[in-house]
Structure formats: structure tokens, C-alpha cells
Write a structure and sequence with these properties.
Layout: H1 2-15, E1 21-23, E2 29-34, H2 36-49, E3 57-60, E4 63-70, H3 74-77, E5 84-86, E6 90-92, E7 104-108, H4 118-127
Antiparallel strand pairs: 1-6, 2-4, 2-5, 3-4, 3-7
Helix pairs in contact: 2-4
């Protein structure tokens, strides 16, 4: 996972402009999972099982991952082979109403007072989804 974390940091450094960036670990931490069909199925499961539906999740048109917004501090305790949680760094967030298009967009809308439940997400990853490994072949090059 250390190599993946380095690649995520390099991606963020390359794509994040300071004026657009939010600091991860202050208002939220981020869990990275794969997207695609398995990611969409995980989103639907979280919608059904998290009280009031899944919390905020965003992605980027050029990045094959879902970024789940979890409470700050989650990264300190997060251990899972199918997902990595970041509690520091910078990330570009989509505009509040942006739900498609090039660049970052929301697959589940942002709300000031909501997070994805990290324990529920971890259980879903453990029990329901044998997702492909988080390390994408392109990241290994």
C-alpha cells in the first residue's frame, strides 16, 4: 500500500492547483476504492444500508476510483486490503451541483453534515464485494 499511497500523492500533486484544493484530514478523510460495476454496486448497497443513504462520494473522469468522504481521523484506524484511506494531502472537490462531466464530479452529493459511515463501508468491503485489488496496472508502471 505504501507504493499506492505515493502514486496517489503524485497524482494529487500533479492535478491539484492550490486555489482548487481542499486539505484532507481537516473536514474529512478519503477512502479510495475501485469504481466500475463493483463500485456502483457498492454505492447502491451503501444507499440501502446507511441511514439516510450513502454519504458524499466523488470521482474524476480520468481517475478509476471512487473517493468516499469519511469523518476526519478515520485514516488513523483504517486497515483494509481493498481500499486505502488518506488523512492528509490535498484534493480537488467538484462544485456542489456537479454530477457528471470532465474532471471531478459527485456520484453521491456532498452535504455539510454527512459522511460515509466508515465501519459500514469496511463491513461492505469485507462481506459483500470481492473487488479487484486497488492497485491498478497503470499505477504500477
Amino acid at each position: 500500500m505504501d507504493a499506492l499511497a505515493v502514486r496517489i500523492r503524485l497524482f494529487q500533486d500533479h492535478h491539484v492547483q492550490e486555489r482548487d484544493a481542499w486539505t484532507v484530514g481537516v473536514s474529512f478523510d478519503i477512502v479510495f476504492t475501485t469504481s466500475g460495476m463493483d463500485g456502483r454496486a457498492l454505492l447502491r448497497w451503501m444507499d440501502r444500508h446507511q441511514q439516510y443513504g450513502c454519504g458524499p462520494v466523488h470521482t474524476d473522469a480520468c481517475w478509476p476510483y471512487l473517493l468516499w468522504h469519511v469523518p476526519p481521523g478515520t485514516a488513523r484506524e483504517w486497515r483494509h486490503p481493498l481500499a486505502i484511506c488518506r488523512g492528509r494531502g490535498k484534493v480537488v472537490l467538484p462544485g456542489r451541483g456537479c454530477s457528471s462531466g470532465q474532471g471531478p464530479y459527485w456520484v453521491r452529493p456532498y452535504k455539510d453534515d454527512r459522511f460515509v459511515d466508515p465501519d459500514l463501508l469496511r463491513r461492505a468491503l469485507d462481506w459483500r464485494w470481492p473487488l479487484p485489488p486497488l492497485i491498478h496496472p497503470l499505477l504500477l508502471q
